[in-house]
């Protein structure tokens, strides 16, 4: 069927652009509120020695649950502290608690409304189905555009993902209250509000708390996904371990998440009927705990309050002393950390982790509003074609000289598939060629279509790559690449050329660490995405000798700190002023 494709993606993009521009003040207010909420909570939880918070959580576990749970809590939290993940754990607990508070504030009222109104239930139910079946990653895309990178989009994505159980089980719990009890309350002249507060909610409490418990677990499951947009905590540690193939560190961070999950699960399950509730009234305990928390939080918020410095002429004040980075553990991030140390910025400035996509989304948002922003940049990249940007001068040479992008193949690939090896060996182009493909992709073209367009319009250059190479005759070639715009462009172009020569090409998108590991262990044939000598230095050295380096397929790359040209700074040294 040759029906034209419905431009759904374009409609959604236009809708998001309209929402972003129209409700920007609202999003800024929400961002400021949640940022402040979390910053103060992290400060409060991290105040004093770690043993203080460990003992408090252990006492809560002891009051609500069995002795075994309390002992597990104490040993588990001490283990996390010993492994060096305590600060990340505090960030994670703060993120989950903030998400759960918002989930309760949204979920329980909506659940009550759905239980009291059949029309509302019929409207809310399919929305909840959509929220629970839509991949959680999708929520991060508009969240970045609305709220920038950092913890806010992570929290809001967690709320969207975690709120359905609270709504569903609140509705279910209230609707399952026996009808004879409802009729009895009505016979005694109860109003709707009295019936809800005195009969329905108390009887539905176990079901509602079960929904809250599920929401806590779902919010905790989002911590790794939220790290893709810069949310701190144990999720970022797991993500960093994945990208660098550090099995041990990944296990440690993952174990820490499991420990926190078990503790929160056991405590939340027993809040309604605590083990020692008969000895010390739970209302007294919870009231005292809430009162202390509120007073301590208010004191922390007052102490942490800072004047608005966005109008300051100091560039650090304007950007909140933050540099927007990419994937944790990436070579560019390590070079940026070195530069911050070299220029004396490591004490006052923060390098925000996230992903390349999150970084460009943050840049887009700031550039359109002519706001100051500092990002980690590299060329070739489409953002230099779309935006008027400049590199900050690096007089100390922290970022080194320009890099090259190399082609690597597995051991024995030349003998196994000489034709494909020859094409990959002869594959070489310029940054301007790569940017041509990248811009088309950024403008909405599918990578394979943008690659096909470039190959078709550069036949003479392509003929140099295929000169003397055998035809493929259906032989399979697997290429791996990391999801950077530059590598998406180069890998798809290489794949398109190989396909034209009769090869069956399989593309696999992975993180940087798995990309090198795949070629080294032979599960992938080749890559055209190794940035050397800096960006992928660690991976290259780790697997050196387990692959063949065919040399550069592109020269003239550059790394550094990048700002819009409307910003009145020219050097990294200007950031110290």
From TrEMBL:
- Establish whether keyword Transmembrane helix is in the entry: yes
Keyword annotations for this protein, in alphabetical order, are:
Cell membrane, Membrane, Transmembrane, Transmembrane helix, Transport
Q: Which SUPFAM superfamilies match?
A: MetI-like, Periplasmic binding protein-like II
Q: Main localisation, per the record?
A: membrane
Instruction: Please report the record's description of how this protein sits within the membrane.
Output: Multi-pass membrane protein
Classification via Pfam families: BPD_transp_1, OpuAC
Its localization reads: Cell membrane; Membrane
Q: Which InterPro entries match?
A: ABC_Gly_betaine_transp_sub-bd, MetI-like, MetI-like_sf
| Domain spans labelled ABC transmembrane type-1 | 89-268
**Membrane-spanning intervals of the chain:** 41-62, 69-86, 92-115, 136-163, 216-235, 247-264, 284-303
PANTHER family in UniProt: GLYCINE BETAINE/PROLINE BETAINE TRANSPORT SYSTEM PERMEASE PROTEIN PROW, GLYCINE BETAINE_PROLINE BETAINE TRANSPORT SYSTEM PERMEASE PROTEIN PROW
Q: Which family does it belong to?
A: In the N-terminal section; belongs to the binding-protein-dependent transport system permease family. In the C-terminal section; belongs to the OsmX family.
> What protein is this chain from?
Glycine betaine ABC transporter substrate-binding protein
């Amino acid at each position: 069927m040759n029906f034209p494709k419905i431009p759904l993606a374009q409609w959604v993009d236009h809708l998001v652009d309209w929402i972003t521009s129209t409700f920007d003040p609202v999003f800024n207010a929400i961002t400021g509120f949640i940022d402040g909420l979390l910053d103060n909570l992290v400060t409060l939880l991290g105040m004093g020695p770690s043993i203080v918070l460990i003992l408090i959580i252990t006492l809560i576990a002891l009051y609500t649950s069995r002795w075994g749970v309390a002992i597990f809590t104490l040993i588990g939290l001490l283990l996390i502290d010993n492994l060096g993940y305590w600060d990340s754990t505090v960030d994670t607990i703060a993120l989950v608690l903030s998400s759960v508070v918002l989930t309760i504030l949204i979920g329980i009222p909506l659940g009550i409304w759905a239980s009291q109104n059949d029309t509302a239930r019929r409207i809310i139910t399919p929305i909840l189905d959509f929220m629970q079946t839509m991949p959680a990653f999708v929520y991060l895309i508009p969240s970045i555009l609305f709220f920038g990178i950092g913890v806010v989009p992570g929290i809001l994505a967690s709320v969207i993902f975690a709120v359905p159980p609270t709504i569903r089980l609140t509705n279910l719990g209230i609707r399952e209250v026996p009808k004879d009890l409802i009729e009895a309350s009505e016979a005694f002249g109860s109003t709707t509000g009295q019936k809800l507060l005195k009969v329905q909610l108390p009887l539905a409490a176990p079901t509602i708390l079960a929904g809250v418990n599920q929401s806590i677990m779902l919010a905790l499951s989002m911590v790794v996904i939220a790290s893709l947009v810069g949310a701190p905590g144990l999720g970022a540690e797991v993500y960093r371990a994945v990208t660098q193939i550090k099995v041990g560190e990944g296990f440690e961070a993952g174990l820490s998440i499991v420990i926190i999950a078990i503790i929160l699960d056991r405590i939340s399950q027993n809040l309604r009927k605590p083990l020692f509730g008969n000895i010390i009234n739970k209302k007294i305990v919870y009231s005292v705990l809430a009162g202390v928390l509120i007073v301590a939080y208010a004191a922390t918020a007052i102490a942490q309050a800072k004047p608005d410095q966005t109008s300051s002429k100091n560039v650090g004040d304007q950007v909140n002393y933050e540099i927007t980075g990419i994937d944790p553990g990436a070579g560019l991030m390590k070079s940026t950390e070195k530069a911050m140390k070299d220029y004396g910025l490591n004490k006052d400035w923060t390098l925000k982790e996230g992903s390349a996509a999150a970084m460009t989304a943050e840049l887009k948002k700031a550039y359109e509003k002519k706001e100051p922003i500092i990002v980690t940049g590299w060329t070739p990249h489409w953002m230099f074609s779309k935006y008027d940007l400049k590199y900050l001068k690096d007089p100390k040479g922290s970022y080194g000289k320009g890099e090259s992008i190399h082609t690597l193949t597995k051991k024995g690939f030349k003998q196994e598939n000489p034709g494909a090896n020859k094409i990959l060996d002869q594959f070489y182009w310029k940054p301007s060629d790569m940017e041509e493909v990248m811009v088309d992709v950024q403008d909405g073209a599918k990578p394979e279509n943008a690659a096909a367009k470039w190959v078709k319009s550069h036949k003479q250059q392509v003929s140099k790559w295929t000169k003397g190479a055998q035809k493929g005759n259906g032989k399979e070639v697997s290429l791996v690449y990391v999801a950077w715009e530059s590598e998406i462009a180069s890998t798809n172009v290489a794949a398109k050329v190989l396909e034209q020569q009769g090869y069956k090409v399989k593309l696999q998108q992975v993180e940087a660490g798995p990309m090198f590991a795949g070629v080294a262990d032979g599960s992938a044939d080749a890559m055209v995405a190794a940035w050397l000598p800096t960006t992928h230095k660690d991976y290259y050295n780790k697997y050196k000798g387990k692959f063949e380096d065919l040399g550069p397929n592109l020269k003239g790359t550059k790394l550094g700190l990048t700002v819009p040209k409307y910003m009145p700074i020219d050097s990294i040294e200007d950031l110290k002023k």
